[in-house]
Amino acid sequence: MLEMRPDCERCGADLPAEAPGAFICSFECTFCAECAEALDDMCPNCGGELTDRPTRAKKHDAAHPPSQVRRYKG
Description:
Blueprint: E1 22-24, E2 30-32, H1 33-38, E3 51-52
Antiparallel strand pairs: 1-2, 1-3
Pfam families: DUF1272
Protein name: DUF1272 domain-containing protein
InterPro entries: DUF1272 (IPR010696)
């Protein structure tokens, strides 16, 4: 199951689990659409491809909560 990280690692933008617009690599490094485009859809951490992260319906939050750990180091 995906962690559904809450923010862009590059700019800190909020990326809610239920909203589109997040991009991830196979290690779940997470970026907003603008940063993914600026990075040419390549993860700066591992060199992997950034692809659209699926969304998670809010009704699943109680049983499978998205991560609250923010990765932006600003």
